[in-house]
Each structure stands twice: as C-alpha cells, then as structure tokens.
Amino acid sequence: MTSTPTYASFKFMEGGGELGALIRNYDWASTSIGTPDQWPQSLRTALSIVLNSRFPMFLWWGPDMIQFYNDAYRPSLGIEGKHPAAVGQKGEDCWPEIWHIIKPQIDQVWAGESTWNEDLLVPIYRNGSIEDMYWTFSYSPVKDEEGQVGGILVVCHETTEKRKQGIKIEIAEANYRQLVESLPVAVFTIDANGFINLYNNAARELWGREPAIGKDKWNGSYKMFLTDGTPIAHENGPMAKALRENRDINLEMLIQQPDGKMKHVIAYPEPLHDHEGYVTGAMNVMIDITELKEAEHALRASEELLEKRVHERTAEIKSANFNLQRSNSELEQFAYITSHDLQEPLRKIRTFTEMLESSLGSISSKSKGYLDKIAASSTRMRRLIKDVLHYSRLIAPEETFTRVDLHAVIWQVVDDFELLIREKNAKINIQQLPVIEANPLQINQLFSNLISNALKFNTRDEPAINITVTMLDMDAQLPEGLNPSLSYCLIEFKDNGIGFDQQYAEQIFTIFQRLHTKHEYAGTGIGLALCRKIVLNHHGSITAHSENGEGATFRIILPLKQFQL
Question: Which fold has domain 397-559?
C-alpha cells in the first residue's frame, strides 16, 4: 500500500491554510519539477510568498508550468470545477478553455516582460459549467538562480460582480438615451442655468436646427410665438418659466424654423428635482399638431365650400358631408390622445428621469425600482403610440388583397405567443381554416389581437381557446352591409375567460374604451377597435357575445373573395 508523501519539514511550505496542506501532501515526484528537496531557492521563495499572502496569487513553474495557488485564490475556482486537481497540474492541461486567450501573454512573460489586464473577460470552467468571469491581473516573470525566467507569478483579483454592475449601469444609460431618442415626440432638457443638455431627433426636426449642447439657452427654437402671433422671447418662454417658477406649464404655441416654416405645437415643460427637492433643470415635451391644425382648417374650408354648393349638388354634398364627419370624428380622437393619454406616460418618464440621473453612481435596489418604473412607463407609451399609428394607417387602407392561408396565419400567431401560452398553461384548439382573399399583415394583426385578449382576460388555471370555422350558405342571413352575392366564412374565437356584460358588446370596439383599468389589465384600449377596422377593411363584420365570468365569443364573417367592380 502506497502512502501519500508529506513535506511538512520544509519551512518554506509552512502555513497557507487549505492549499498549504494540499501542497505539503502532494506527490511532487510525479511532476516534472521533482520533489521539494530538489526545488531551487527561487521557487521556494516564490511559493512561500504565495502561500502566506492574503491576496489571490497563482504560480506557474518550469517548462510544463506546474501550478501552485493560495487560499485567497481558491474561491475563484468555485465548486465542481478545477479545484483541487489544479494543484500540481500542467497549465495547458488545466486551462484548455482559455489557453488561446492567455497563451500570448504567457509567451510575453517567458520572454521577460510583465503584463497587466483590467476587467478582462476570461471565462473559466467552475460550478459545473463555463462561466463568464472578469479579472484584473498581472503576469510577472520569476527569475531563477541563473537569472532566467523560471516561472510566472499571477497576482489577480476577480472583478466579475463589479463589472456586471458597471454593465448594468452602461445598459441603463444606453437604454435611457435610446428611449429618449426613439420617442416620436420632441423631448429636450436644460440644466439649472437654462442651457440645453439633451434633445432627441424629433426635437431637432421640430426646430429645423441643431442647437449646441451647453451653449444654446432655454430653447432650440429659432423663434417662438403665441397662437395669436405675439412673439415670445426665449428668456420668457415656457421652459424658462417652468425652471424659474418651479411649476408645470401647458402652452399651445407656434415655432418658426430658420427657413420660415411655422410649426404648431403643444408644450409641456416641467421642472426636474433632485432627491432633496431642489430644482436641477427642466424637461419639455412638445407635440407637433401642425398637421392636425391644417386638417382642421382644410375641413372648415371644405365645409364652407360645400355650404355654397348645397343647392346645386345636394346628393354630392350629403356623401361628402358624411365623409367629412367621419374624418372629423377620427381627428377628434387623435386630438384627445395627443392632449390627454400621452401625458400620463410622458409625465412618468420626466418624473423618474431625475431619479435615474441621481442613481447612476451605483445600482441599488432603489435605483432598480426607478429603472423599472421608467421601463414600464415607456413601454405603455410606446405601445399606445404604436397602436394609434396602426389605427391611423387603417383609416385609409391600401386595398391590396392576395390569397391568404388563414390556417397558416393563425398557427404563426400561436407560435408568436408560444412562451405566454406555455406560461399560462393554455390550450388552443383550431379547426382547419380556409384560404381567402385578404391583406396578410392585417389578418395577422386581427388574429394576434384576438388571441392576446383571450389570454390576457383569463384567470383560470387552464385557459382554453377554441377557434372554429363555418362556411356560410348563399342563403344564410348576413349582417347588414354585407354583399349577399359573395361567399362568406364564419370564424369564431371562443375562450373561457372573465367575459363581460353583453351591454358593453359595442363599447369594446370603440377606440380607447376599456372595461377594466390599466392596473387590472395592461393595454391601450385600441386592440378591438383595430380588429373591427381590419374586418371592415375586408368588407366583413365582427361581433362579440359574452356573460360575466362565462368567457367570450368573437364572431368574424369574412368574404372568401373580394368584390370586383
């Protein structure tokens, strides 16, 4: 029976805790450096320093780079990793996963030069897998008795957690700037002295110029006016008042660009505060309503013209008046969202901007909360704006229809919701759907909104969605407005969710109408309005049927082919 050798009698191997004991009891005769009694004094001295240092150190010795390390380095190897096999092991055998990274530096040290790296990503195998780890370390040559490099001393410190925190801060800063830059409304901020320190592309386009950060004061506009044409001096403008008077401002005004073009805007400047309540600057959100105002003027002009022609072309006026009233109603809805619904998420962005800026020094739980609130607010705002844009595009759709396989579209949508379906343990049953003439993008949006609603408004342990289809006979009774000369299919989306009172069956298809608060169920109140608009664009119909707590059924009737004049 062979016993493990011990070299406790060597003074240079004394101490060192766990690693000292491992090194004293290791079978060094099996390595290329031989037993400790054969080791040169340079190795003995270096090893004594490593073992008795409380700073993480690692030592390679000889051509095979036989390894030593101390207790301070030991935690960096984790569990289920390289420890304790790394003691006495050849360097290349121990570090195959990073040898291509460290070998060039090792060769440099063998040539007599030291190296230094700060926060370098060096993934190693530990805790049962390859982990991304960051290190600050130096490689230094250790000279032997002949003055040649006999080994390499590694003095290192793992900076993984510090680097991760730094990355989080960098991501937070980048996300914040990206968020501001991607906003479709003009946003800019000033410091406590009134100098512009941030603005996005929408503000640049609204101003028609690019102000100098830290030099332009109060506003990036070339000139400003009240809506009656009265000039506004920059130092007396809404942004200056918000900062000086420490209060929110709401002002409809005109901005003149350098080329003379006028923009009609609504400005919402607000002061920014630090954590102690002191004013540190101000933020302004400006919404361009120029096109809306031009449309209103055009509508008024059209109405006056139609009024003059009423006695000559009565029939034409009735048709035109109907279209004008519909356009005016839609414009009013857009005016409402511009002046009301966009204020809430924008106000949240402004409120938490100051908190974010004061917390970027380090990521605490409090700072993370601020970031979460900004992310939630910006997500709602972007979703709202996106849905409004979708709806506006559907107001005058391009009637480009092609053959669409509804079955392929519905399964693509189901695939898009795969994670949510799995999370909610939902069951979806789908009959074979037909091929019809339709707009594929709009049909995808229709099915996506209906499945999203069915999943969202469902609190059961196993939500269920059943999608069925019925081919309607030529003599089937159709809803008013459908062409009886066409063939139709009836598609039903039935779920077992919370349902709704049937008295609200029409209200749910009205834009921005909600039966639940945003705190109960996320959303913008546009989804079902989009569904109805898409179905109408396809010359079909959609209705909803439900009872509270009994699920809901959406019945969509679509023509198999579009009517050709």
Answer: Heat Shock Protein 90 (3.30.565)
Element (DSSP H or E) covering residue 163 = helix 160-182
> Residue 50's CB: how many other CB atoms inside 10 A?
25
Span 186-288: which CATH code?
3.30.450.20
Whole-angstrom distance, CA of residue 343 vs CA of residue 41? 76
Report the C-alpha gap between 11 and 22 in whole angstroms: 15
Measured distance CA(403)–CA(423) in Å, rounded: 34
Report, at the CATH architecture level, how domain 11-158 is classified: 2-Layer Sandwich (3.30)
Query: For residue 486, what are the contacts with CB-CB under 8 A and spacing of at least 6?
Result: 559, 560, 561, 563
CATH C-level class of 169-183+342-396: mainly alpha
The pair of three-digit structure tokens given for residue 282, joined into one six-digit string = 């101000």
Domain locations in the chain?
11-158, 169-183+342-396, 186-288, 397-559
474-516 confidence digits (pLDDT tens): 888 888 889 888 999 999 999 998 888 888 778 788 754 445 4
Radius of gyration, CA atoms only, the chain: 36
CA gap 43, 7 in Å, rounded: 15
Residues 6+ apart with CB under 8 A from 437: 401, 402, 403, 404, 559, 560, 561, 562
**Cβ–Cβ contacts within 10 Å for residue 538, how many?**
24
Neighbours of 451 (CB within 10 A): 23
Place of tokens 């660009």: 257
Give the pLDDT confidence of 193-230 residue by residue, as tens digits.
Answer: 999 988 888 889 889 998 988 898 988 888 999 989 99
In whole angstroms, give the CA distance from residue 69 to residue 55.
11
